[in-house]
Amino acid sequence: MNIENKKNFGEILKEVRIKNGDSFRTLADKINIVFSYIDKVEKGIRPINKEMFSRLLNVYPLDKKKLMVAYTFEVFPENAIKDLDLLKDSNDYEFIYKFLFENLSAEEKKNLLKNMYDRLEVDCYKNGTYEKNKEKLNLIKSKIDKLK
Description:
Layout: H1 9-19, H2 24-31, H3 35-42, H4 50-59, H5 64-75, H6 78-87, H7 93-101, H8 106-127, H9 130-146
Helix pairs in contact: 1-3, 1-5, 2-3, 4-5, 8-9
Domain HTH cro/C1-type: 13-67
Pfam family, one: HTH_3
InterPro entries: Cro/C1-type_HTH (IPR001387), Lambda_DNA-bd_dom_sf (IPR010982)
């Protein structure tokens, strides 16, 4: 990843919103927020808040990865992102797990697991393995839902 060439979250949000045919007001209605706030986020005047980000992921499920990467670049310090880049070729799952989960609140951990589950579910649909894995997916989802 080249940190210097990354677009800010607002620019990515604008691309996603327009690609999906949403105006400020349409998106504002979908995520129950004032349309001017979206405009300010897109222009880089206001930072994205976690609740709005979570709602955006629900509205634009096909753009989750793009939004999540942009959000990561928006909220993580540059040196942390560089460290993540170094990990992309690592097979040290325990180290990665600790790095990702140790500094997150319980709610953030649950949201991360939900996002991972959503991705897994989409991949199963795409690969035609959803029916085969449906029982396991339901078990995983129920365990995530029970987390506090």
